[in-house]
Design brief:
alpha/beta, 10-stranded mixed beta sheet, 16 helices, 15 strands
Length: 468
Amino acid sequence: MFFIKTFKTFNNYYYYDVNSNSINEISPDLHEKLTDNRLDWYNSKTASELESLINSKRISMNKSESFLHPFSVVLENFLERKLSFMSFQLTQNCNLRCKYCPYTKNDGFNRIHTTLTMTRETINDALNLLINNSVDNDIITLGFYGGEPLLEFDLIKYAVNRVKERVEESKIRFTITTNGTLLNQEILEFLDSHRFSIMISIDGPKHINDKNRVFHKRNESVFDIVIKNIMTINENYNELKSRLGISIVIDPEVDLYDYEEFFNEYDFLNNTTSNISLIDESHLLERTIRTDSFKKVIGYKSFLTYLAELKEIKRGSNDFFNKLIYPNIIKKLDGLEFNNQLPKKYAASGQCIPGNRLFVSVSGNIYPCEKVNELSNYTIMGNVQNGFDLSKSIRILSCSEKKFEDCKNCFAIRHCTNCIKYFSEMLDNNKNFDINNHCNLVREKVLSDLIARANLLEAKRKQISASI
């Protein structure tokens, strides 16, 4: 049968065609028959409607027959010449024990905090690899990560000085992700003078932040220290302030309006880049529950964001909900790009390209990013001493192959977000993890996005009609 997903809004009936990647409005009769696969007895009216859709290439039965990630044929060249970003895990130690951190507590399939630290030899090997394998890029970016990277400030200074000996300053970018508790005048002046971009973690107001973000073996408020350091940057380091970002992890068990009040109290944060996400619970055995209040607030604020983007209402001055919701709204507003039919050889879309954002562990192992399980044999791309293992890198790129028989029949195949972070748990036979649950979540999200797009199309048509 046709490779589609039917759905409806309050006003109209639709289907999403996987091959053309298009949303199409249809009559209630055809919607019913497509939904139930009852095309053997369609009437002349729906037959004409369906024939028109077939002729316009907006509905078809084509499905991919075998697995192939298209980037796998050029991955070797990419890794040899086009590296652009490498992040160093300077230490696996941290002065905090955040309750949701996968390294504080997990299901036993990932590492926990240790005192391991990257050696200068490993830093040198990593820099050699990054510089030698980035010849086709004008800019390279070096990131510092942890644990808490500022525990090893001397290693940061060493790496920065070494790379500047070999690469022109105008061609280097530096980034650091930190919990913000160790910042002092010396560190801030160093970060400022070397034009670092800095991402500081702070999870909203004090009572929320200090619920989950706590010191290891110290009974002090993390919030008080971090917000003071953020305000110091804002007041005294204009250049660094322009490159400051904050990372907020949302706790679905608290009142979302408290985050809004946080942005009101510290209103300069409205002009700061913010990375806002929900707690990642894929590593936890006990999951938090999103309250009905949480869901209602998200739904209501999403609705207001739609109206603001459609210029039906004025956008609010507080940026928290804009930062939380707006990026997803933009994706919906951009619409779908019309495509030709799926190729015979294809792969689900979730896997990023290994090499776009490399992560080097304290021991020198190379991973596709900092979010993957460091203990899995399926996430390692090689090491900085010997370089990349192409077969392992392609295996990461092709991680969804084990589920291809399911993927090729899934309407979300073009918009999947499952990657090696999740597939490695399946490949390692983690019995506490079920990839099918994540697949269901992806399908729910994609369907929700399709419905939102259709509603927006209806609203735009209504606006145009009213203006004529």
